[in-house]
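for the record, two folds in this file. i put them one after another cuz i was lazy. first one right below, seq on top, C-alpha cells after. the second one comes after a little note so u can tell where it starts
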Amino acid sequence: MNLLLMSNSTAPGRGLLEHAHSVLADVLSGVRTVTFVPFALADHDAYTQIFTNALKPLGLDVVGAHTGDPARLVSDAEAVFVGGGNTFRLVKAVHEHGLIDIIRQRTDQGMPYIGSSAGTNIAAPTMRTTNDMPIVQPTTFDTLGLIPFQINPHYVDPAPGDSHMGETREQRILQFLEENDVAVVGLREGTWLRREDGTLRLGGVEAGGRLFRRGAEPADLAPGADLSDLLEFAPRFDS
C-alpha cells in the first residue's frame, strides 16, 4: 500500500498543502492526474477547484469524482485524494456511490491514497473516532479499513487554565477504548502517517502525535516514530 494520512491540509502562515509538498511529491511520484473525492463538503465544484489550485505547483492535474460516475472515476484513477470536511457526510456518500470496495481493491494494487481530516478518518476500520457532528445518518459506521487501527485527526491537548467543562479529547478516546479494543493514533495538526506496504511512520511537525491503547497509559509520539507494529493488531469493536 501507498498511503498518506494527514491530520489537516493547512498550516499557519502557509497555503493549502504547502507544509506537505515534499511527502506529497513522494507519494505521487509518477502520477499525473489525481482524482479528488469532495463529498465531505456540500459544494463539490468549489472544493475540487481549491485542491486543483493547491496541487498545481506539484505539476498535478485534478479531476473531481463528482464530475461523472464516481465509481468509474475512482476505479480508473492514478491516485485518489479524499478531502476533509464532515465525516458523516463523507461516509454516507462513499457508501452510496459504491466506493468502499473499489478503493480497497485499488489500494491493494498499489494506487496512492491520500486523506486529509475526514479523508484520513475513513482510512480506519470505522469512523467512530471522528470529531464531527452527525449532520447526516450513514447506513453504517464501517469505513475503508486500509489500516487496522483508528485515527483521531486534529488531536488537541488540554490547554492549561481552559474554562471548557466538557471532556478533553483524551478523555473521549479513553471512553472509546472502554468499548473497543483497538489502538488509536491522535494526530496533532501538521502531522501525518505514511504507509508503504508493511511500514508505517509518523511524519510532520515537531508536535508529533499521541498513541492510545486499552490498558496502557497514553504515550506521546515523536516525528519519525516507527508504528509498523500497529499494522499487525487485530481490532475488536464493541468488546
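(here's the note) second protein begins now
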Amino acid sequence: MARTRLYRNGVLEAEDFPVEKISDHLEDDRAVVWLDLVDPTQADFDVISEECGLHHLAVEDALNFGQRPKLDRYRSHLFISAYGVRLDGREGRVVTDEIGVFVTAQTLITVRRGDGLDLDAVVARWDDNADLSRYGVAFLLHGLLDYLVDGHLAAVQELDQSLEDVEGLLFDADRPSVRAVQRRSFRLRRSLVVLRRVTLPMREVVNALMRPTLHVVGEPMLPYYQDVYDHVLRAAEWTESLRDLVTTILETNLTVQGNRMNLIMKQVTSWAAIIAVPTAVTGFYGQNVPYPGFGRPGGFITSTLVTVVLSIALYVTFKRKEWL
C-alpha cells in the first residue's frame, strides 16, 4: 500500500499519484512529496531508492523493524526511527507502532508495519496548519513528530491515572487482595518500562533535528520544533517519575501488609490473653484438693467474679492501647 501527496509552493497540488511519478515531480525545486508505505517489500524499496536515492543501510533498517528510536545521517538524507504509542484499555499495557522516516530535501517517506499508526490524524494536522506548508519537508516532519509525541504524553497521562487508582486501593477499607494490587502494579511498571524505551531516545532525535548543521529545520519552524522538544522532555521526565512512583507503591503495599499483620497479631494476642484468664481461674478451681469455698456456692460466685472482672479489665486495657 502506498499513499502520496504533492505540495508545490506550499499548496497541496495532488494526492495518491503513482510512485513512479515522484522523480518527475522532484525535478521542480519548489515541489515537496510525501510518500507513505505500509508493509513494503525489498522490490518496493528498489523502486523508491531509485526514485529518491536512499542509502542501502537506511533501507535495511526500514525493512528490519525493531529499531530503537534514533536519527541516522547519510550524505543525501536522514533516517529516523520512532514509535507511536497507545494504551490498551482492557489489559492496561502499552502498544507500540514503529515507523521509519526518510527525510530528504524534497521528500518525506514514512514506512509502517500494519495500520496501527493512524496517519490520517497526521494528515489532518497538516491540513489544519496549511499556512506552514510553505516550509516544505520541515513542516511535514513537524506534523508527524508532534503527533507521535502527543501520543506519548497521552499514554503517560493514562498510566498516571491508573497509578492514582492503585494508590487509592492501598488504604481502602474494602481493598482487593494483595495479589491483585501487586499484579496491577507490576503490569503498570512493565508498561512504563516499554514507554521509557520509546520516550527517552526521542530527546536526542528531536534535539539533533534542530541543529543547524543538518539543514532540516529553518528559523521559521524552529519554535515549533522547540515546542515538540519540550513535550518530549515532559513525557520522558513524567515517565521517570512514574517509574519511581510504582516502586514506592510496591514498597508501601508491603508496609501496609506488615502493619495489618502486626494489628492482627495484636488482636489475636489480646483475645488470647482475655481467654487465658477464665481458663486459669476455672483450671485452678478444678483441682481435686480442698480450697477456700470448696463445695459451697460462695466459691462458685467468687471464681465467676474473678473471671469477669479480670476479663473486663484486660479488654479495657487493650482497647485503650488500640490493640482491639
